[in-house]
Write a structure and sequence with these properties.
- The strands form three sheets. A 14-stranded mixed beta sheet has the order 1-2-3-5-7-9-11-13-15-16-17-18-19-20, with helices on one face. It has a three-stranded parallel beta sheet with strand order 4-6-8. A three-stranded parallel beta sheet has the order 10-12-14.
- The chain has a domain of 56 residues.
- It is α/β, with parallel strands linked by helices and 379 residues long.
- 22% of the residues lie in helices and 27% in strands.
- Helix 5 links the parallel strand 2 and strand 3.
- It comes from Capsella rubella.
- This is FBD domain-containing protein.
- InterPro entries: F-box-like_dom_sf, F-box_AtFBL13-like, F-box_dom, FBD, FBL13/AtMIF1-like, LRR_FXL15/At3g58940/PEG3-like.
């Protein structure tokens, strides 16, 4: 073989387009991993690539502070050409650069018609809040919905400080999502809702934060497994129908403990933050005596009689308890001897569960994090 022939073979091998020979599904998967702007530009490579990007199921359009113009034009033009029959995820974040005279939700309606599963819509433009298409309220394929800032929810699922037309529209919002599994709610003092109702039969995970004492919360979620509630909902809280709850994180400004804890009787792991305004009577955990397996007390001071009484009741009443973690609260005035005496005192508190263990977490007087594991109580 001549030298020129060898060079020709090498050049042909180098120039051969191996990527374009890949199956269509694999090319779509590859383009799903790059920014939408870059994916769209591949249409200019060749006829083979002209429509590949139009089938990607995940779309993300987000303004940021470094941009000189909004992604709105890209969103508007690319969605006109997009052809995927199913959209797994659509994430849109439009900021101050977005024109205020455009229809920013028309492509939301388009995505809903193509079995949309996950929608994140953040609208921070300078115009007034805008409404969503009514088709979104009845989307049976929707699994997760995140709405932020200037979106007016008038009939409807991270719900982040959104504005509702009235209480009925908020209830209709959730009832119109029949396959919703995860719900994240963030409310602030400007929230126009006095009562927030969560009645979702399909819901598995709930994360709720309210910051106004005047807010009321009603929860009816029969399949819920994970629940986080924190804020200032006071005594205006009604929780029922949670037979499958396994993990709960509760941090409230004030609340009647019996009223709240009676609703989480099936929980196996509980993180419960007590405040000075709460009733610390022994009855507060009576509903958990046959279910609780893991108990965590953060910032245990040990200086109040009520604290010790409450802890004694927990350990003496929870028959299935496997681990109780006590995070000791220290000040610089406490010395090592006092720390040791406190742990020794707590270690000998009688426990209903003969296999339970106490785990103390604290910072010593020299600021060295330590973990001290106590063996099961021997009756």
């Amino acid at each position: 073989m001549t030298e020129d022939k060898k060079i020709e073979i090498v050049e042909n091998t180098i120039c051969q387009d191996k990527i374009s020979e890949l199956p269509q599904d694999l090319l779509v998967m590859i383009l799903s991993l790059v920014p939408i702007k870059d994916a769209v530009t591949t249409m200019f490579l060749s006829k083979r690539w002209l429509s590949v990007w139009t089938m990607i199921p995940t779309l993300e359009y987000k303004d940021n502070d470094e941009m000189k113009k909004s992604v709105w034009n890209l969103l508007d033009k690319s969605m006109q050409l997009h052809k995927a029959p199913v959209i797994d995820c659509l994430r849109v974040k439009l900021g101050q650069l977005c024109p205020t005279d455009v229809d920013v939700v028309k492509w939301c309606s388009n995505a809903v018609s193509r079995c949309l599963r996950d929608l994140e819509f953040v609208l921070s433009w300078s115009a007034d809040p805008t409404t969503l298409p009514s088709s979104l309220y009845f989307c049976e394929s929707l699994v997760k919905l995140t709405l932020c800032h200037k979106i007016l929810v008038d009939a409807l699922l991270d719900l982040n400080c959104v504005v509702y037309k009235d209480e009925y529209s908020q209830v209709r919002l959730l009832s119109s999502c029949p396959v919703l599994k995860c719900l994240y709610v963030r409310r602030n003092k400007t929230d126009n809702m006095k009562k927030f109702t969560i009645k979702v039969p399909s819901l598995l995970e709930l994360d709720y934060a309210g910051y106004d004492v005047g807010h009321a919360l009603v929860i009816n979620t029969p399949r819920l497994e994970v629940c986080s509630i924190y804020g200032f909902v006071g005594d205006s809280i009604s929780i029922e129908n949670m037979p499958f709850l396994k993990w709960a994180y509760i941090k409230l400004g004030s609340c009647t403990n019996e009223k709240l804890l009676s609703c989480v009787s099936s929980v196996s792991t509980l993180q419960f933050f007590l405040s000075d305004e709460m009733d610390w009577g022994p009855a507060t955990l009576s509903c958990l005596s046959s279910q609780l397996e893991i108990f965590i007390w953060k910032e245990y001071g040990g200086t109040e009689e009520e604290e010790e009484q409450f802890l004694r009741y927990v350990l003496a009443s929870t028959k299935c308890l496997s681990t109780a973690t006590i995070n000791l609260q220290y000040t610089l005035k406490k010395n090592h001897e006092e720390e040791h005496l406190m742990m020794e005192k707590l270690k000998h508190i009688p426990r209903a569960s003969t296999t339970s263990q106490l785990l103390f977490k604290y910072v010593s007087f020299i600021d060295v994090p330590l973990n001290v594991f106590m063996p099961p109580y021997a009756s």
